[in-house]
Design goal:
Chain A is of the alpha/beta class. The first copy, chain A, contains 13 helices and 13 strands. In chain A, helix 5 links the parallel strand 1 and strand 2. The first copy, chain A, binds a DNA duplex through helix 2 and helix 4. Chains A, B: This is LacI family transcriptional regulator.
Chain lengths: 379, 379
DNA sequence: CTGAAAGCGCTTACAG
DNA sequence: CTGAAAGCGCTTACAG
């Protein structure tokens, strides 16, 4: 407790700088000295004081991950894996008490923030941007001044809705449509309906306070009491959809026969509910790799022009909204895959030089991961 | 960007110390000065450099929460709420890549760690203890040198098993029984069987690599192929149980008629699967309050004798293992409630002066929280 | 290739 | 009640 670099230097009989060089793997230290220093470090149990380093260098060596929306849960897990693989340490400010999160990530000591929140409040974002905090957005919100990595939310929502249309459904409702944060998903939903020449009553679009199971349950229950009731529901997160399924079956309805349900996020949970949950699966691996690469690059070069990196998504049919009989899925993996391997990159309005990310695309096996080691879900 | 306390002092025409006093709410600054300083802070957008403060004071002002086992998910959420309510900032090292977590929490900058992992590796724990890191254990593992806050795991497992016995089950299996980390739950399971005069075959106790759904699925599938197959399964986490239910129904078995299932953790997810999941519910609010209180106390007074704070748990019958017809539940809330309000405190072997925690007990309504705002689960 | 000095931005004794 | 100085443990120019 309290072993400093100086103590190590004294024991090893070298200067503080040499110890620092060894600790940080800097070249220019002879092997013999390096060994002597290593020994001294081991003997004293020295561990560098991170705050001192931070104060001096301005770098914490930490990334922060903030996820306050469950449709990014799998993405968050993938980011943790990807960061660990590359040796980056990550702290998480989790989905928590509504206000807590937004407040929390301002003071987390990190060099950069991966912000998996939908539509971060404008003023908070402004403060971070002007403070120069490296920021990568993962959710729905876009900002000309920030990087974003994620699926094309409008298109993903359109594909989900089109999947329900392909099943012959016409009275399609949407749950989760917060006017602000979920704007693009609602836009995609409406686009799909418009193209099919369908006009959804306003009551079919339900905003919920949060994206959790209980919210989906109550929204669905109210929706199913509407006249006429919807014959399909698109939920903006998997937990919302899980709640909706339970509400439907509790009401004595059959899923998908009476009402089909599709979620958003591709979470594990959806494979185990009954009926199992159809869902839109963001390519979490691509997003994770691109997001980590990007935040690291942004930390190194704050002046990079902001870029948007679009990752592929797939519609994964399971029991709650199965593949249409014809077999021609409205949003085949091929169709929704990006033109460029690894996600396409759009130049942001302000960015004069669009930055090309290296995020190699890993083809997903079959149903997007459900094959590996899990239950075989009846088709 | 780069506004320091000195800048504020200059603008306000005071010394650095005065600004520091104002920022930290120290008394002894006249109201007029305080105002002037506040104004200067606002004008410059000053935010204190946390690392500098940390370096000087040795305090980060952060708590770290490490949860790598899902039976503590609800506890983790409650801790986040409790900490936020009391103005403590928390960073989370989440359940992630198996090794990542254990490695990660060593370098998270925090004044103390709430460690929700089962049986932390001895050597890692040793290192932290000798380093003097304030530590509160939340999982199964105990250590004479550390505080622990949580339910009585042996008793909780005994109650879960007794619940299955009360349903008339005799061939009761257990999933999740890692020899090390889950020892006490296995002990409780065996106690209950022994008291009922039942001898479970060794094959009925299954260790799994992880406590997730897919592990529960595979363990249950293998278990149900055993001859004779179990007529009830106690799972050491809710996700394990969710997987087990799916395995049983996939195999064409009826839950609970052919095989009853009970989980551990009282997670939300269990209310929505079908059949809904019976589970052991730790009193997350009591644990959360006690854990936060304790870690804060331990940070302030490192020499407190280590204490164990035992929180109450309840068995929550739902569809997958309903209440027995007689109505006399084997583990009524009353029976498993602690003698002392707020959880009983046991003196640790080394602690000569057992420390009494103040963790007021909140009686749980009905089924342990499931009543509020969720689906009405058929009895 | 290695060493002595300065300084990152705070807070904490110590004077006034 | 307020101010000037020292120092927390590192790393970064700068000399040798």
């Amino acid at each position: 407790m309290g072993v400093t670099l100086k103590d190590v230097a004294r024991l090893a009989g070298v200067s503080a700088k040499t110890v620092s060089n060894v600790v940080n793997g800097c070249p220019g230290v002879s092997d013999a000295l390096r060994r002597r220093v290593r020994d001294a470090i081991g003997q004293l149990g020295y561990r560098p004081h991170l705050a001192a380093r931070h104060l001096r260098t301005g770098r914490t060596g930490l990334l922060a991950l903030v996820v306050d929306t469950p449709h990014l849960d799998e993405v968050a897990r993938a980011i943790l894996r990807a960061a660990a693989q590359r040796g980056h340490r990550v702290v998480v400010a989790p989905r928590g008490p509504a206000r807590g999160v937004t407040a929390a990530w301002r003071d987390v000591p990190a060099d950069g923030i991966l912000l998996g929140t939908n539509a971060p409040p404008r003023d908070v974002l402004d403060a971070e941007v002007t403070a120069g905090t490296p920021l990568v957005l993962l959710g729905e919100g876009r900002d000309d001044r920030c990087d974003r990595v994620g699926v094309d939310m409008v298109r993903a929502a359109r594909d989900a809705t089109a999947h329900l249309l392909a099943l012959g459904r016409r009275r399609i409702a949407a749950i989760g449509a917060d006017p602000g944060p979920s704007r693009s998903r609602t836009a995609g939903y409406r686009q799909a309906l418009r193209r099919a020449g369908i006009d959804a009553p306003a009551a079919y679009v339900r905003a919920t306070a949060r994206p959790e199971r209980t919210d989906g349950y109550h929204a669905a229950r109210s929706l199913l009491a509407h006249d006429p009731p919807p014959d399909a529901i698109f939920c903006y997160s998997d937990p919302l959809a899980v709640g909706a399924i339970r509400a439907a079956t509790d009401a004595g309805l059959r899923v998908p026969d009476d009402v089909a349900v599709i979620g958003f996020g591709g979470t594990e949970e959806g494979r185990y509910v009954r009926p199992s949950l159809s869902t839109v699966v963001p390519d979490a691996e691509v997003i994770a790799r691109a997001a980590v690469t990007r935040i690291v690059a942004r930390i190194a070069c704050p002046d990079l022009p902001p870029a948007e990196i679009v990752a592929p998504h797939t519609v994964l049919p399971r029991e709650s909204a199965p593949a249409p009989p014809g077999g021609s899925r409205p949003a085949s993996p091929r169709e929704s895959a990006p033109e460029l391997p690894g996600g396409s990159v759009r130049a942001c309005p302000r960015g004069s030089v669009p930055h090309r990310e290296t995020a190699p695309h890993t083809p997903r096996a079959g149903d997007g991961g459900a094959a590996a080691g899990g239950p075989r879900v009846p088709a």
